[in-house]
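Q: What residues go here?
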């Protein structure tokens, strides 16, 4: 039998944040491929008590052990990492599965060993714990689905066997068939969608004022004074694509408009931002940072443009011919059809 761990958040008060969209889509794709769900219910912690947090570690461990007890010798299970029901004893849970000759595949959503290593808000001890915990799990697994070749190289550098790593290329973004999209127009504003919290996208405060931008998402602050910015509010992940209107979708993080900087910006060197999948599913070609891992994807499939700085976008658009833009649209439409039907995860699991 083939299984996957399906984690259900019982008190999710932030449904307009697309953070869970990738996990939910993964669940749907796996079920369509015949994987059976192992349901694990999770409540978002509301207490900062160290004692309660410590107690919850053991509770989570016991609960996962109970869930995993359904799996029989020789079965397969897919785990999405990081597991939301996180426990320091997770590696032990997985080690017990391996002893029963159960095949384990890890799909990486975020690699905390990279993402949080440069965050000042995370203590050194916690960073070490995160790194060691993740590496243990990845080393135990039979197969690891990484975002791209850059993440694969980083994992190999961290001691994970290259033979077990498969590249996803891009996340899927499932949409209802009835979704109607607005066609991208060459002279329309640049779309910026997703988490607009200044801590993550501080660069919005210094966007060049020589082009227009349409913003969608949670966390936008009215303190940003830029006459070229139009803010359209937030929508649920499956509704958002039908509201996006623009020419390109921008994938950029950090506090600078001249380069992707800070913990979030640097993470783009290894990460496939889920908003790239949102844009492709919405029919929008991409604008990405030249130094990001996504740049290789954009160049391989000719589905957007790469820039070193946001100040370069105006010149890039000015030199973009109508014929070239139509080619980008055609390639984007093809990729959009693929991500909307779960092609990339299915391909990775076949490998």
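A:
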């Amino acid at each position: 039998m083939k299984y996957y761990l399906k984690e259900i958040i019982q008190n999710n008060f932030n449904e307009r944040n697309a953070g869970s969209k990738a996990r939910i889509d993964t669940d749907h794709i796996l079920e369509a491929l015949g994987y059976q769900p192992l349901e694990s219910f999770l409540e978002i912690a509301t207490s900062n008590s160290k004692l309660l947090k410590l107690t919850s570690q053991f509770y989570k461990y016991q609960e996962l052990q109970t869930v995993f007890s359904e799996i029989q010798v020789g079965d397969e299970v897919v785990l999405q990492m990081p597991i939301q029901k996180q426990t320091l004893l997770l590696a032990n849970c997985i080690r017990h599965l391996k002893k029963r000759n159960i095949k384990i595949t890890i799909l990486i959503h975020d690699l905390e060993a990279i993402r949080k290593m440069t965050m000042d808000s995370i203590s050194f001890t916690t960073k070490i714990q995160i790194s060691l915990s993740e590496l243990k799990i990845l080393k135990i697994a039979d197969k690891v689905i990484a975002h791209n070749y850059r993440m694969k190289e980083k994992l190999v550098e961290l001691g994970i066997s290259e033979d077990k790593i498969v590249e996803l290329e891009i996340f899927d973004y499932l949409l209802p068939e009835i979704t109607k999209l607005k066609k991208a127009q060459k002279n329309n504003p640049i779309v910026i969608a997703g988490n607009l919290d200044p801590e993550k996208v501080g660069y919005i405060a210094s966007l060049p004022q020589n082009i227009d931008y349409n913003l969608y998402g949670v966390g936008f602050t009215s303190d940003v004074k830029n006459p070229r910015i139009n803010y359209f509010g937030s929508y649920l992940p499956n509704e958002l694509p039908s509201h996006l209107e623009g020419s390109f979708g921008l994938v950029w993080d950090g506090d600078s408009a001249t380069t992707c900087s800070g913990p979030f910006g640097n993470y783009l060197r290894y990460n496939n931002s889920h908003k790239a999948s949102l844009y492709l599913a919405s029919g929008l070609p991409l604008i990405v940072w030249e130094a990001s891992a996504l740049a290789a994807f954009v160049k391989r499939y000719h589905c957007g443009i790469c820039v070193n700085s946001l100040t370069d976008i105006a010149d890039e658009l000015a030199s973009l011919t109508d014929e070239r833009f139509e080619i980008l649209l055609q390639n984007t439409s093809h990729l959009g059809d693929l991500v909307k039907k779960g092609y990339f995860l299915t391909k990775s699991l076949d490998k």
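A: Context that may help when evaluating the design: The two ends are 18 Å apart (CA to CA). The chain is about 35% helix and 15% strand.
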